[in-house]
Write a sequence for this structure.
């Protein structure tokens, strides 16, 4: 049962999904921390959306690192 059950399994797609999930988790965590600190005010409606977009772009490095590291650990060869 080496690869019998998981023959449709794509390592690169799986690692990309893990990286994207890590990016979204880090982004939500940073937004919660900023909300707890008191950066967002009720009268400034666009601050939360702007922070989400900026943090999504800034956490792209985390996603790339996690995806590449998982791909390497799973035996990926196409760098």
């Amino acid at each position: 049962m080496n690869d019998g059950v998981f023959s449709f399994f794509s390592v690169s797609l799986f690692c990309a999904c893990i990286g994207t999930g890590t990016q979204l988790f880090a982004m939500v965590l940073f937004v919660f921390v900023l909300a707890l600190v008191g950066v967002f005010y009720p009268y400034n409606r666009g601050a939360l959306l702007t922070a989400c977009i900026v943090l999504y772009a800034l956490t792209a490095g985390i996603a790339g690192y996690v995806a590449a590291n998982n791909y390497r650990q799973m035996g990926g060869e196409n760098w």
